[in-house]
Structure formats: C-alpha cells, structure tokens
C-alpha cells in the first residue's frame, strides 16, 4: 500500500486565509457626513408619491369647498324666502295699521260729534228742567189759588158745594182730574183732615157687589166702616163716600143721587 502525503504551500495558504476573512467580515457602515449616492429610479418613485399626496389633498379641499358652497346657497335661499315672508307680513301690517288709524280717526270724529251733541242735550235738559220746575211752581201757585192742595206729588181739590156722585165726577173731569182714588193708609188719613163728608171715585154700579175705581181698577185695599157696604134698608147704594172723618175706617156705600161734597185728584 502506497502512502500519499500532502504538503501545504505557504503562499497558497495565505491567499486562502485572506479570501475567508473577506467573506466573514461585512462591509463597514457609512460614516455620518459621508455623501450617499442614489439611483435615478428610486428618486422618481419618491417624487411621484409626493405629487399623489398633494393631488389628494387638493381633491379633498375641493370637495369641502363644493359642500360649503352648496350649503351656503341653500341657506341663502331659505334666508331670502324668510326675508320675503317677513317683508310681506310687514307690508300687510302697515296696511292694516293704516286702516285702523283711519277707522280710529273716523271714530274719534264721531265721538267728538256725539260728545258735542251730548253737551248740547245736557244743556237743553238743564234748561228744560229749570223751565219745568218754574212751570210747576207757577202751576202750584195757580192751583193753590183755585183751591187745590198738593200731597205726595198729586193735587187734590175739595169742593165747596154739593152734587150727586155722577155730577161730582163730571166736575172733576172738567177740571182735568177725576174723583179721588185712595191707594194707601197715608192718603186715607190725609183726606180725613178736610173733615167733610165727600164722594170718592168708588162704585159698584156696573156689577153689584164688585167695587171698582173710576179708572176701572178693582178695589184691593179698603177702609169700610164695619158692616159696610150693605145697601141699607134695601136702597140701591152703589157709590162710595167718606162718611166719617174722625176714624180711619170711614167708607160707606150711599145712593148715588145724594148731594154731598166731593174730592178731585189730579197728577201734576
């Protein structure tokens, strides 16, 4: 068997060592400050990206501007409509105000005219009232001179001669009055003060037993003497009189043709 021996060459061994060291050690990093070199391809890609971003931002801003303008236009349209409506309402109110002012002016004129008329009427009323009072005083004086007496705003005439009930009534009518109608206790007592036997305006000639006054009202309050009216002794006593003046219940029924005094009554 042959034995083969390998003998290393010193030069070749050194070369091998250098190559192995180069593979195991990486290239040193670039120091700060040292300029780097870039290829044209990588630079173009970066510029394209920047331009794309700018264009995107511009598009977004454009969309925002369009939206804002659209909203602004809508708001302006709504504002114009509101302004138009308010203007129309203002004009309507102005027209209404003019109408109201004209009506108020007309009413003011009418009021002033009515006030003037009222003042004139009031002046006339005062004048007529004074004239009426003067006439009443004059009439009262004349009536007193003629024998009339005033009681509770009514005149009473007491005759000085005697007549039948019917003739007495006719005399009162001729004087613008009628036979007295007695409506109260006060009036009854006033008439008694004349201390005369007198005819009063009471009769049942129309219906026996139904006593009525000369104004055709039916008797309600009475002052008959106890037991009256009674058609005494079967006589036809159809006319009323004040028989006694010294007592409150003093009425009596008597024949209508009897001759006695009478009392007339008249409103002033």
Automatic annotation (TrEMBL):
Task: From the UniProt record, list the coiled-coil ranges.
Answer: 76-145
**Pfam families xref list:** Lectin_C
Q: Where is the C-type lectin domain?
A: 151-265
Outline the segment boundaries, as ranges, of region: Disordered: 20-39
Q: What InterPro entries does this protein's entry cite?
A: C-type_lectin-like (IPR001304), C-type_lectin-like/link_sf (IPR016186), C-type_lectin/snaclec_domain (IPR050111), C-type_lectin_CS (IPR018378), CD209-like_CTLD (IPR033989), CTDL_fold (IPR016187)
Superkingdom, according to UniProt? Answer: Eukaryota
Q: Which Gene3D superfamilies does the record match to this protein?
A: Mannose-Binding Protein A, subunit A
For the keyword Manganese, the answer is: no
Entry keyword set? Coiled coil, Disulfide bond, Lectin, Membrane, Transmembrane, Transmembrane helix
Molecular function terms, GO-annotated: carbohydrate binding
PANTHER family, A to Z: MANNOSE, PHOSPHOLIPASE, LECTIN RECEPTOR RELATED
Q: What is this protein called?
A: Hepatic lectin-like
